[in-house]
Specification:
This protein is α+β, with helices and mostly antiparallel strands. 43% of the residues lie in helices and 17% in strands. Strands 1, 24, 25, 26, 27 and 28 form a six-stranded mixed sheet that branches. Strands 16, 17, 18, 21, 22 and 23 form a six-stranded mixed sheet that branches.
Length: 965
């Protein structure tokens, strides 16, 4: 083995390599003193391959004049440049994210301008920026000052042998101390600022609070305090606590690295300065906690501890005093920590004070109310909580709009009525339907789809139109574009050529073409034959467009170039029609700057480079009607069922908007998703509501979206009879955004209807809150239940399949019918209600759904408990138990066909219920559709009839029930 001196010469490790000076291995690196290499008693052995490496290095040195080890010296340069490169990449990424934010704000502002709501966006943006700035700066100051305080603490002694990492950190820390302080400020600024910006609605409501005119019985404050004012105070406390919490974490983590505290080694574990700093921060936290305890008193008005929402016995006699006590204790602990920070500076004082606050929170705030509830309220709630139940009933009925136009009618047959008169009465008081809008979308697709790139909504919409001098119930479907079925998925096809759907298809709910067993279409075909006139057929905005869908439309004035596919030619024609969008609902993107902005926003270079984009082009974006309304008015909760209407020849989308809150005092909290879920939501036909708790809901806004221009108009609704203070508050936040109800045209007014989700919530509330006596309410004996949909399981059983498919509440039904089964029909939304056990019929709830003097008037037919009739599930059981019916349906499902049961309709007729259920068959083919085969009807306690037409089925069912008396 060669000697080490020879290696030094051969490899140039001495002077040639310059390692002694350039690499700083002597003094600069501190290796002579600190490194364990200098303290090694013996030199390490030379590796076996080192001689070959040295020889190769000498050869390279002779050839190139640059030794290999000199070349490896570049690693030191890499070590210097790598952090710089990393910082540069971070800066570039930050600039890119900042650019995306700027582009997002600019393009969003342009979109709001295109829908004439630019001022609304400015208001939202200003609120967000203000909250982000104020609370972000506060959090940054707290975090930055905390870090600065930690850096000035004289830490405990460190040893390079036992505290290697912290010793190294303290050695190099002065170089990047400003960066540490900056990070300690920026991280809380961003995190707290983002949280604060998310509370912009709470802030704006607080700023524009509007009195409700109703006070709570506990604190005697107006309901607006709980709904609009207290939530902002709670938001402020929460944000400041979040900022202080980040500061505590900064102090603890940074304090460890600066040796302000340690876990092991040495008698002294923490410095006095660290104790003082933590005392200040924890004292500030307890001050905020004290104010939080004080505010928590008002949360008792929506407490869920007792039998109903509101301040029950335990809340008043234990939780309320506990809140006062905890406020005092938290204040006292905060003062103690302030004293510790100023004078004492003892760790035991700090730990003891925090322990007192924690133990008090558990004992006083949790254990004490729990004991009172368990041993006092729970055993005696039947008497102790009667006053709260009374308050809860009144508040709940008011909060959900059930305290006004609600008439309860004891319902039973009191007059002898022969069968012939009952048949005439049934035909004159209701428009019984044989077209189930929940089942016949495939029929519309097969019969009226025309091309595969068109499609109809999976559930058709029911409305009413004046036809032939009579208001008739009509199912209406919009022929929307199906982007997933285009002939080619090229960018030009998706965004420039195929830009819109075309036309509507309509059919009465009561009629079937006997020749085809299919609907009798009023509007159909292409070019369309129309009985409901539509002058503007193109559908540029519809429910079929996803969140990422956009179209680029428009040509310069005078241009004859038409790129947009409009519709196929008539049958037998190979010529298709093309068109150009002439509306003004898009964002002008003719300039290069705007094209660049939206190319970045949409992640598509084609927007910038495509030759199909010209100086007159418009970008149609956010094309789903509900999404457009949600963007303009995010403070609204929107109905899950958006429906189309033909108004003065134009296709409109109507979206019902609700003002909701979970802070209305004493009103019952319910889960919005649970209360609105039906089989339509379960199978995806209707949009599910968020799973949030609410205890106030008013349908105060009707939003209308034009299917051609995309124009969004918000209208006040029903404010004369049911004024909504929440709407008034939002109108003061966004002046001019919501138009008065008086500006609704008569043609549009006739197409508005009572919304589905509100009715479903109200029927859920009425299931309990039809009982107004507190003692009876507590017992719950007279409560109702919303029936489950029996046709889903029935369809599975009749097709010899498992019944365990979808089990969900029965959907409410739009139908023209009499409120009491005797008078004239009116367009209504209704639902039967069952007893708690689900076997018997308890009530029938309906609301007048057509705008007019009686709009929103509830009629509750209360059936006697002894002879109320059967619930929908029992009726379905009777149908499936009928041998004649099941044998016939078994034959119907032979071969490749299966039975499809339509909606089980409940219709009041002369003191009893008439049930009607259409029966369809559908083959298993890919283009199959349901065909009406039979109609089942059952009246009162009679036998179910099974006929080929609805008229004969109803007549037979009534006659089988005999004369009522």
């Amino acid at each position: 083995m060669p000697k080490l001196s020879e290696l030094n010469k051969a490899s140039g490790l001495n002077k040639a390599s310059g390692l002694n000076k350039a690499s700083g291995l002597n003094k600069a690196s501190g290796l002579n003193k600190a490194s364990a290499l200098n303290r090694s008693p013996a030199r390490p052995a030379v590796p076996a391959g080192f001689a070959q490496l040295a020889a190769a290095s000498a050869f390279v040195s002779r050839v190139s004049g640059t030794p290999l080890f000199q070349r490896t010296l570049g690693k030191s340069h890499l070590k210097r440049w790598l952090p710089r490169l990393l910082i540069a990449l971070i800066v570039l990424y930050g600039l890119w994210r900042l650019l995306r934010v700027v582009v997002g704000i600019a393009t969003t502002d342009l979109w709001f301008d295109s829908v004439r709501a630019g001022s609304a966006y400015v208001t939202m943006l200003e609120a967000r920026v203000l909250l982000f700035g104020v609370f972000g700066i506060i959090a940054a100051l707290i975090g930055g000052l905390t870090m600065l305080a930690v850096t000035r603490i004289d830490g405990l002694a460190l040893s390079p042998d036992y505290d290697t990492f912290r010793w190294t950190f303290r050695k190099y820390e002065p170089r990047f101390r400003p960066l540490l302080i900056l990070a300690a400020a920026l991280v809380p600024l961003i995190l707290v600022g983002i949280s604060a910006a998310g509370g912009w609605q709470t802030y704006l409501l607080w700023l524009h609070a509007t009195p409700f005119g109703r006070t709570d019985p506990l604190f005697h404050r107006d309901a607006s305090f709980y709904v609009e004012i207290a939530p902002f105070h709670q938001l402020v406390v929460s944000l400041l606590k979040q900022a202080v919490t980040y500061a505590i974490w900064i102090a603890v983590i940074a304090g460890y690295w600066y040796a302000a505290w340690r876990i092991r080694r040495g008698r002294r574990k923490v410095t006095r300065a660290m104790i003082q700093l933590l005392s200040v921060l924890l004292g500030a936290f307890l001050l905020l906690k004290a104010y939080g305890y004080w505010l928590s008193r008002y949360g008792l008005t929506t407490s869920a501890r007792g039998p109903v929402t509101g301040a029950g016995y335990t809340d008043i006699h234990a939780s309320l005093p506990a809140a006062y006590g905890l406020t005092v204790i938290a204040l006292g602990c905060a003062v103690a920590l302030a004293v510790n920070a100023g004078r004492v500076g003892r760790l035991r004082w700090l730990v003891g004070t925090v322990a007192v606050a924690v133990v008090a929170a558990y004992l006083v705030g949790s254990a004490l109310p729990g004991l009172v509830y368990r041993y006092r309220e729970a055993p005696g709630a039947a008497t102790l909580d009667l006053s709260e139940i009374r308050n809860n009933i009144a508040a709940t009925r008011a909060a959900f709009g059930l305290d006004g136009d609600l008439t309860t009618v004891p319902y039973s047959s009191s007059n002898s009525t022969d069968s012939a008169r009952l048949v005439r009465l049934a035909s004159s008081t209701a428009q019984e339907s044989v077209i189930d809008p929940n089942q016949l979308s495939p029929t519309f697709n097969v019969k009226q789809q025309v091309q595969s790139y068109y499609a109809f909504k999976s559930t058709l919409d029911t409305s009413h139109y004046d036809l032939g001098g009579r208001s008739r119930d009509v199912v209406l479907a919009v022929r929307e574009l199906n982007p997933g079925a285009l002939p080619s998925n090229s960018w030009v096809n998706q965004h420039v050529v195929y830009t819109h759907g075309y036309g509507v298809v309509a059919a009465p709910t009561t009629a079937i073409d006997p020749a085809t067993a299919s609907p009798v279409f009023l509007d159909q075909g292409m070019p369309p034959a129309q009985q409901i006139p539509v002058s503007r057929e193109q559908i540029y905005f519809g429910q079929g467009f996803g969140s990422s869908s956009y179209a680029i439309v428009g040509e310069p004035a005078g241009s004859s170039r038409e790129l947009e596919f409009d519709h196929p030619g008539p049958d037998g024609s190979a010529t298709s029609a093309f068109t150009t969008y002439r509306g003004d609902g898009g964002i002008p993107i003719g300039s290069a700057l705007r094209r660049l902005l939206f190319a970045i926003r949409l992640n598509s270079t084609n927007v910038f480079f495509s030759s199909e984009v010209n100086h007159a082009s418009q970008l149609l974006q956010v094309r789903n009607p509900a999404a457009r309304v949600a963007a303009i008015a995010p403070w609204l909760t929107l109905d899950g069922d958006v429906y189309p209407a033909v108004v003065n020849g134009r296709i409109k989308w109507i979206v019902d908007g609700y003002t909701t809150t979970s802070n209305y005092p004493d009103s019952q909290l319910i889960n919005l998703r649970s209360a609105t879920s039906t089989t339509l939501v379960a199978d995806g036909a209707s949009v599910a509501q968020p799973s949030t708790q609410i205890n106030y809901m008013q349908n105060s806004v009707k939003a209308v979206v034009d299917a051609y221009t995309g124009a969004v108009t918000l209208y006040e609704w029903n404010q004369a009879s049911h004024p909504d203070p929440l709407l008034k508050a939002w109108e003061s936040v966004f002046p001019g955004l919501v138009q008065p109800q008086s500006s609704i045209s008569p043609a549009l007014l006739s197409q508005l209807r009572y919304p589905t989700d509100l009715f479903n919530v109200q029927r859920t509330v009425l299931a309990q809150y039809h009982v107004t006596d507190p003692a009876d309410f507590y017992s719950g004996n007279d409560f109702w239940s919303v029936p489950t949909d029996p046709t889903i399981g029935g369809t599975s059983r009749l097709n010899a399949k498992s019944a365990g498919t979808i089990s969900a509440p029965l959907p409410s039904k739009y139908m023209s019918q009499s409120a009491d089964g005797y008078g004239n029909e009116r367009y209504a939304l209704s639902s039967p209600m069952a007893t708690l056990n689900g076997r018997d019929l308890a009530a029938f709830v309906s609301v007048d759904a057509q705008p007019g003097p009686s709009y929103g008037k509830f009629t509750v037919l209360d059936f006697p408990s002894s002879s109320g009739g059967e619930s929908p599930s029992q009726v379905q059981n009777d149908i499936e138990s009928d041998t004649k019916i099941t044998e016939a349906l078994t034959l119907q499902r032979g071969g490749n066909s299966r039975v499809v049961l339509g909606d089980l309709e409940a219709i009041p007729v002369a003191g009893r219920m008439l049930y009607v259920e259409p029966v369809y068959t559908r083959s298993s083919g890919s283009v199959s559709f349901p065909i009406l085969r039979h109609v089942i009807a059952l009246y009162a306690n009679g036998q179910p009839s099974f006929k080929n037409s609805i008229g004969s089925a109803i007549s037979s069912a009534i006659r089988s029930a005999g004369t009522l008396g």
